[in-house]
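Hi,

Apologies if this is the wrong queue. I'm a grad student, and the batch job for Trypsin from Popillia japonica produced an output file that my downstream script rejects. I'm not sure whether the problem is my script or the file. Here is the sequence I used:
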Amino acid sequence: MKVFVGLLALVALVSADHLYDDIDWTTVRPAHERLQLPENIRKLAEQSKPLGRIVGGTEAVPNSIPSMAALLLTAAEGIFFCGGSLISPSFILTAAHCLDGVIQVQVILGAHRWNELEGSQIRRFTNSFTQHQAWNPATLVNDVALINLGEPVPLSFAVQLIALPRHQDVTNSFNGASARLSGWGMDSDAATGVSPVLREVFTAVQY
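Support response: The file is valid. Your script probably expects a header line. Output copied below for reference.
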């Protein structure tokens, strides 16, 4: 029995390494590049660039943002990248546009360098996810989705749930409050791909 269990573990390890090695990291693109924005929305986004997206920031201390999830998204056109937050041991909160046309998601928790196998990481593959039922790609309204991990992930120093607002804060816009934003997005407008390390920036909420 011990030999059988050992063989299963070895097969699982080899399979995981094979799946990991199959990815050409240089071709992984940010998921927002797949968005086909209407002309009026695209122009508005360009005019309000500082508000519309975050570029740059500084490298975060490894494992200092343990709720952060890296998402590798398999679609017909290739593999794309998004970020998310662990809101329960079984669910990741992310943007709905990340999952348009996606076949499978590889969730990476506990990562600093998402394109390396780090000892702190937990990796899960899933095709169970739900976009907001009123998600509208034409207006970007209700751009929110949930990814189901199935079996709950064990929490550790590197994998923790994100702090959620209290019930009494449901009507609070938090306008003007200080916010910490994190992710593996492009570190400059000249960047050709996503950042290999987790980055962060502090800014004020603008509502």
